# Entry
Amino acid sequence: MTQPVTSPTPGRRPDSFVPPLVRAASEWTWRLLILGAGLIALFFVVSYFSQIVVPLAIGLLLCALLSAVHQRLSRIVPRAAAAAITVVGTLLVILGLLTLVGSQISGGMSDMANQVSEGIQQIRTYIRTNLGISDDQLGEYVDQARQWLANANLGSRLSSAGVTAGHFVAGIFIALFSLFFFLFDGPRIWAYLVRLFPRSARPYVDSSGAVAWQQLTHYVRATILVAAVDAIGITAGALILRVPFAIAIGVLVFLLSFIHIVGALLSGAVAVLIALVAQGPVTALIMLAVVIAVQQLESHVLQPFILGRSVRIHPIAVIAAIACGAIVAGIVGTLVAVPILAVVKAVANHLFDEYNRREGITDEPDAGLPPGTPGVSDAPTAQNRTAEAGGSPT
# Structure
């Protein structure tokens, strides 16, 4: 007797044998692969045009810093004249700092030579006494260093450095040129870019741009203020200890302060090294204490107070962003990694809040959960995330 053929269950889809988690994971995977391919293509395009993109990015950062100055000048003179005055004033300030550093270095080379010889003698005595390394062993190490420099093919490196210097000068002119037009015609440039998007997306693009610009402005101004305090503190310590090139050290500290965490370590190491070579181990230890004290003041007082909640980013995210920026774009990547992270974070929070508002979603952490659930009351609400992004709650 033949068995009846059972028909498939009505309404059962063929793909229902795939577990829901596997199906969701596969959907996320191919979407992430497409996004990754788009990011890689964007990276190659930006890298190919880096000699233009990098100066434009620097001009944009300078515009975020100097926009308040331009607005005040625009109340007195026309916008074009205010932009020109702002650009020329910025250039004069930079040239003045470079002239001051150059004059201090040229005027202190003779004293530095005498101090270096005394400092090297102190270091040799310290190494021979405390580390047990003889002068012959130290001389062998110095000879190995000289041999390494002789085999380093410095000629080709100097020629490539000359080409890089030419690109650097051209980049400065592009940055100043773009800075002028960002200040003078920035709103119209942004309005033109917004019109390139579909009509339905223009309000979100426009509002996201406003949030991004506000975040970038807060970040750059706060970083400038923190960098100035760092430079003043370390320069004052170097002047008190009579460390050579104190002004040059202060300018280096100011510039490297734009690279979070890593810049502070590098500038502090340079200050301590100069103090070690010129004044000996005792002065170097005191200089190290000054650098650590200034950096602790920055980390625990200045940054939480000045940056506030508007641009707060977790230190792990900062380190990861700097590392990724260094791998992708070297020094320029470390410079722009943190502001890009801050802007992306603010825009993402803004778009999430806009989506929740449009869909009528109340992002209340305790909704639908029993009272007393641990860890729920600490979750950020939509209004808190908007406040962190520097915007106003919608």
DSSP finds twelve helices and no strands in the chain.
